[in-house]
Design goal:
Helix content is 57%, strand content 0%. The protein is mainly alpha-helical and 110 residues long.
Length: 110
Amino acid sequence: MVAEKWKVKCRMIGNPPKTLEEALDYLLDQLSEEDQALIAACETGNSMVSQFHHGFGTWVRNSLGLWEGNDELVEDLKQYHPDKEFNCKGDDASSVILEKLWVKIRGDNE
């Protein structure tokens, strides 16, 4: 399961992505076909975010610097959240990324 596989402590990667699209491309490169199939099997983007919040979601937040260190990516993510004034840090930021990753893996149109 993806959530179990990614339960590691990590630091922000060097030269992290600065936009949502760069982040999605980076994550797709890190995920095996099996991981992508598990993500695609989720019924909704929201259910995917809930299922993978811990483990993989934690790894995403830490490695992409969503709590601190990657203000450019965090700022870019704000445009994808329905509430344009929300505090896009950590959990909120990773939710945007995870849901968009689910859409991209499934090939769904928004």
